Amino acid sequence: MRNGTLPKIVFIVYVLILMTPIYWLVKMSLQTNTDIMSGLTLFPRHPTLEKYFEIYNDPTWVHAFGVSLSYVAINTVIAVAVALPAAYAFNRYRFIGDKHLFFWLLTNLMAPAAVFAMPFFQLYYAVGLFDSIWAVVLAHCLFNVPLAVWILEGFVGGVPREIDETAAIDGYSFPRFFILIFLPLIANGIGVTAFFCFMFSWVEQLLATTLTSTHALPFAAVMTRAYSVSGMDWSLLAAAGVLTMIPGAFVIWFVRNHIAKGFALGRV
Amino acid sequence: MTFALDHIGFDIGGVRVIDDVCLTFEAASLNVLLGPTLAGKTTIMRLMAGLDQPSTGRLLLEGKDVTGTPVRKRSVAMVYQQFINYPSFTVYENIASPLRVAGVAKAEIDQRVREAARVLRLDNLLNRMPAELSGGQQQRTAIARALVKRAGLVLLDEPLANLDYKLREELREELPRIFSRTGAILMYATTEPSEALLLGGSTITLSEGRVTQFGPTSTVYRDPIDIDAARVFSDPPLNELQVARQDGAIRDRRGRSLDCVGMLSDRPDGAYRVTFRADAASIGPAATGALSFPGKVVVTEISGSESFIHVDVGVGTWVCLVSGVHDWAPGQTATVNIDPARILVFDASGRRVQANALREAAL
After folding, report:
1. What is the chain B residue with the closest CA to A163?
2. First and final CA of chain B: distance in angstroms?
3. SS3 call for B126
4. Where in chain B is the domain with CATH 2.40.50.140?
5. Are B102 and A171 an interchain contact pair (Cβ–Cβ within 8 Å)?
6. Which helix (H) or strand (E) segment is B317 a member of?
7. For the whole model, what pTM was predicted?
8. Tens digits of per-residue pLDDT, B293-346?
9. How high is the pLDDT of residue A116?
10. CATH T-level topology, domain A59-265
11. DSSP code of A257?
């Protein structure tokens, strides 16, 4: 049955099933609302980019898209930057309570994000962080930093300790060794970690919408504007949905090689 | 430059792994650290490098205490058994690395790197990445990095253990020569007695974290001061026979009287261990003046031009080295003749019973 027709058919059916919802979203975004409501079609009868232009020309949508991208990017950078030294320390040093602390990091991932929405809301309101990009950035760090530490620790463990020692014998100062020698060795791990942080932060909506109101409203929150007294704007909603997938697709495209290698080397 | 370990001890998790080590090394000396796996060779080297801090004792450089000096500030180079290089640097940058950190001028770096590369025959590999090299080339890169630094103390931790036979022979010959020119104290750890003998210099025998003997290699080999030193310096393992001296007669465990009273003539009664290395015994008809033990062949190992014959003599199994290829079948009877001049006798506590005078007379 090698290279037979059955495996090909199975493969095609599999891909079709995977692609159907995405195709449907893209199709809807290219249709008009009347077209969508007038019955089942496989292809848009009058394809139009009208809704994309509507979003592009509306500053609220554009601003929200920028806000979402900013907090996700800042969060990813912070999470990786903070997690790198932590992962190194957890792997290389023995200190009091190290194993408990490492496990405790994971417990942050065990509770649903909704649990933290209320305390964050109250806290940020009190300190004046409410409705800012930083509110979302810091809230997302709560689960992205532990995740990043956990992933990176596996990659740090993949680098022989003797390399650290050789660098010390050669006379490298620690920061110089870490940046010049160590970071290139775990580049794949950093890629994988950044990818996960980006994705977690990008798709997380509950904290993002709870902690913002007008200035720092994320893209998904603005999507509620598609509901109005005149009914649901299906087409607009679909176009916005397609746009939310684009950054993720870009990230996957750029880190695809790192991820393939990274998954093989690291713990995840 | 002299470098000394002064009553160095090291504990891991409350267990003493290095016990009271006192050694002094002179500049431009070759020192072989000989011991079986887990004897503490790597630990001692790590302590000397400053990678680990000793639990007790001091390290003295020219008499000055350097125990607390961080490894970065020490004049030390180390080569590991595993081939350790910086994977993201080219061979050139790998070798140049300690000089770059030290801020040596560019022209001098280039000259020294090329010089080291020439000595270790890496000239045409300088632009490669370590992953593109063979194991031998990777290890030569690591050695070149140690060489180029011109450190006062060079630690080679079983540097050739993971290399193939041919390369090992070549490098083993070259290494002492390469480093002797730099005037460094060279420490070379190995598990193999033959490697220690080939390297020469001085040998430190290490047994369970304890230094048993330190002296010129040939002296340590010929005159081990205790049974641990003799065991460490014997491959195949030291052949041992438990004997008891009573009323002037010496008997083995089965009560057979042995013709070696002379060796213990000035000794009190008690338990002793008569030992000899594989090459101190021969197999054949009972010879005069030799201690003879009839036995049965257990196994024959042929290694090139020599054969190791394992013979069960009733009080244990001994290994004898016979030159030439022999094919003694298991079960065949054979008589082991021990050369009395090359017997090493130890008392019950493992201390060497000095039989030097007797040995010399026999020679």
Report:
1. B84
2. 39
3. coil
4. 239-362
5. yes
6. strand B317-323
7. 0.81
8. 888 999 988 888 888 999 998 888 999 998 888 878 898 888 898 888 888 889
9. 85
10. MetI-like fold (1.10.3720)
11. H
d(CA B163, CA B137): 10
Helix (H) or strand (E) holding B169: helix B165-180
Strand partners, B276: B239
Interchain contact A203–B (C-beta under 8 A) = no
Extract the tokens encoding A19.
């692609």
Give, as one character, the DSSP assignment of residue A160: -
Question: Which chain A residue has its CA at the smallest distance from B146's CA?
Answer: A170
Q: Is the dihedral of CA A19, A21, A25, A31 positive or negative?
A: positive
Instruction: Please report which helix (H) or strand (E) contains residue B30, including its range.
Output: strand B30-34
Q: Give the three-state DSSP class for B230.
A: helix
At residue B290 the predicted structure's pLDDT band, cuts being 50, 70 and 90, is low
Q: Which helix (H) or strand (E) element contains residue A45?
A: none
Residue whose token pair is 């408990």: A100
Say whether domain B239-362 belongs to CATH 3.30.1240.10: no
pLDDT in tens, B92-118: 999 999 999 999 999 999 999 999 999
Domain boundaries, chain A: 1-48, 59-265
Superfamily, domain B2-228 = P-loop containing nucleotide triphosphate hydrolases (3.40.50.300)
Crossing angle (nearest 10°) for helices A161-170 and B91-102 = 50
Alpha carbon A40 to chain centroid, angstroms: 33
The reply to whether A185 touches chain B by the CB within 8 Å rule is: yes
B107: amino acid identity, one letter: A
| Spatial distance between the Cα atoms of B60 and B58, rounded to a whole number of angstroms | 6
Q: Do B76 and A169 touch (CB under 8 A)?
A: yes
- Which of B72, B74, B84 shows the shortest C-beta gap to A163? B84
